Amino acid sequence: MLRVSLLALLLALPLFGSAKPKPTPIVYQEGRYRLANGQQLRGRLCLVSDNDLLIAATDTTPAKKLAAAEVRNFVIGADSFATLRNYDVVVNGVVTHYTHGMMQVCPAGAGLEVYRVQGVMEVLRGVQDPAMKYVLRGISGGAAGIATGALLDNLNDAPNGYFKEELVTLYLLRPANAAPLLTLQPNTSEARKHLKLAMAGDEVLTKKLRNAIMSEEGIAKLLAEYATRHPR
Known about the structure:
This is Secreted protein. By secondary structure, the protein is of the alpha+beta class. The protein has one domain. Strands 2, 3, 4, 5, 6, 7, 8, 9, 10, 12 and 13 form an 11-stranded antiparallel beta sheet that branches. The longest helix has 14 residues. It is globular, with a radius of gyration of 18 Å.
C-alpha cells in the first residue's frame, strides 16, 4: 500500500474501534454459481473478499479460488451475490474506479438496485476530524484512488505504524434512471442526499429522512422500508 497520493481503495466510514479485526473464518455453505461464460454449477461456497470466491466440491476436495472477473453471480444459503463491473466508489472525497467486485445483493424497492460490501480500512491515529482519519485499503488490491488536501497531508505526515485496521460496511445504490452507482457511506450527509434522491416520490420516507440517523443500521432500515412500500 502506498500512503501517499495513490491508495488502494475499498471502503471507509466513521467507526471507532480499537481492536484489529479478526480474519473471517472459512465457512462453506451449499450454494450455486454462474460463471462469466454462463455455465451454472453447484458447490460449497465461501466468499472471502470482494475478489475471491472459494469453491469446495466435498470436504476432502481442495478448494479452488475464483476471481470476480470469472463469476457472474452466485447464491450462498439464502443470500444472493453479483459481480459488478466498471463502477466507482466515493469515500471521504476519494474516488476509486473498479473493474470488478463481488457484492451482496440487497432487497430493493421498485426501480432501485442496492448492494452491500464489507472490507478493511486503515485508520489514521491521532486525527480528530472523522472525515480526515480514514485511509482506504482494498482487499483485492485492484484499484487506486487519489487522495488530496488534508487527507493527503495526513498521509504524508503520519509516521510508520501510526495506523490501525477496522472492518467496515458500505452500501452502493443505483436509483431509477441513474446509471452510476451512488456510495452510501454511513454517518455522512452524502448518504442522506443520495437516499433523498432515490426516495423522492415517497413523502413518508422523505419526511423520515430529515431526522433519520445515517448509521449502517439506519440506512438498512430505510432501504428495507422502501422495498416494502414499493415492491418490484
